[in-house]
Amino acid sequence: MNNRVVEPLSKNIMQASDLLKSGQLVAIPTETVYGLAANALDDQAVARIYELKNRPQFNPLIIHFSELEHVSKHVILSDTALKLAKAFWPGPMTLVLPRKESSEISLLASAGLDTLAVRIPSHPVSLDFLKQAQVPVAAPSANPSQALSPTTAEHVLSAFQNNNKLAMILDGGPCEVGLESTIIDLTEVTPVILRPGGITADAISQVIGKTIGSATEASHKPKAPGLLHRHYAPNIPLRLNATEVKANEVLLAFGPNALTHSLNLSSSGDLTEAAANLFKMLRLLDQPQYQGIAVMPIPNVGIGVAINNRLERASVR
Ligand code: TXA
Ligand code: MG
């Protein structure tokens, strides 16, 4: 199947949101860049984003909403967050906020973190789409890993031509901002800009009534823009490539030849399923009565590369 670029007519927007709800990926315009959208409540759909982007690691994704009321179901909105939301949403601003325990957003979408990056885009097509979908939407920029962010439907098409994992591309014209959203971390005492964007530090400082620091100027130097998030790590040690289970360890298995009866990332050996289960299973096994989690070898191919990358990071103590 060729990717279909469609005009943003309401019947097409409705079809795109139906595809999304059935677990497929669709590309949507936003005012910043085009996004590769998946139902954020669906682990498997989120795993397909990483697969299609061919990302060697699981970066947490931004979750898109059409209304503040929906945002507030998933994150804790501080006074500062509300002030910023009022000033800049809908618009090119993303807020990193503490995730509510009750939120059912895929842990893979937030790469296992206790925080969520959320935003309400202003592009009328994305707002229409999000209203139709009625689910939170995880959407990174719709480009393969390392490639430039797409600001037209043609960019998206040429990046994923003939890839049947992308069901539809909604054409909303060229993106007005053309640069990814400003990401503000509100989970620490002082708000910090994690990724600069269209909304400036000065404009943000004015709204919150104090100066805002930029992570790029601060002590921790980022390797790449937008990569300044913390990494998920369990409280108990992780032992990788385990070929046996030691006393007091619990096993995270992979494949049909599981060593013991325990949690299995995918008993059929399906790497997409394993990615979808990774963070929720790690959390389930991260219990103080065990001395550690033994993880069976994961093939280092396709999305397995990202799984191993994340396991390696989580095993460093
Ligand atoms: O303008 C945009 O923000 C576009 C459009 C599609 O909305 N989206 C976008 O997504 O740029 P993406 O995945 O390419 O960049 C998201 C960045 C990640 O690199 C990650 O560092 C940061 O957001 N991020 C996401 N969740 C986070 C979290 N919980 N804590 C810290 N940073 C987070
Ligand atoms: Mg990106």
Account of the 3D structure:
The protein has 317 residues and is of the alpha/beta class. It is built from nine helices and 15 strands. Strands 1-8-2-3-7-4-6-5-9-10-11 form an eleven-stranded mixed β-sheet, sandwiched between helices. A four-stranded parallel β-sheet has the order 12-15-13-14. Strand 2 and strand 3 (35-39) form a beta hairpin. Helix 1 (10-21) crosses helix 5 and helix 2 crosses helix 8. The longest helix has 15 residues, at 271-285. It is globular. It binds threonylcarbamoyladenylate and magnesium ion. Magnesium ion is lined by residues 140-141, 149.
* Largest sheet entry: 11 strands, mixed
> Strand portion, in percent?
15-25%
Contiguous helical run count: 9
**Which ligands does the model contain, each kind named once?**
threonylcarbamoyladenylate, magnesium ion
SSE order in H/E notation? Answer: EHEEHEHHEEHEHEEEHEEEEHEH
Distance between the termini: 46 Å
What's the Cα radius of gyration?
20 Å
Q: Low-confidence spans: pLDDT under 50, at least 5 residues?
A: 218-226
Main β-sheet, spatial strand arrangement? 1-8-2-3-7-4-6-5-9-10-11
The averaged pLDDT comes out at: 92
How many β-strand runs?
Answer: 15
Shape: globular
Decide which structural class fits the backbone.
alpha/beta
- Which oligomeric form is depicted? single chain
The share of residues in helices is 25-40%
Short recap of the structure:
The chain is of the alpha/beta class.
Topology:
Elements (H helix, E strand, L loop, with lengths): L3 E3 L3 H12 L3 E4 L6 E5 L3 H11 L8 E3 L3 H4 L7 H10 L4 E6 L16 E5 L4 H10 L3 E2 L14 H7 L6 E5 L11 E4 L6 E4 L5 H8 L4 E2 L23 E2 L9 E5 L9 E2 L6 H15 L6 E4 L8 H12 L2
Parallel strand pairs: 1-8, 2-8, 4-6, 5-9, 10-11, 12-15, 13-14, 13-15
Antiparallel strand pairs: 2-3, 3-7, 4-7, 5-6, 9-10
The chain binds threonylcarbamoyladenylate (TXA) and magnesium ion.
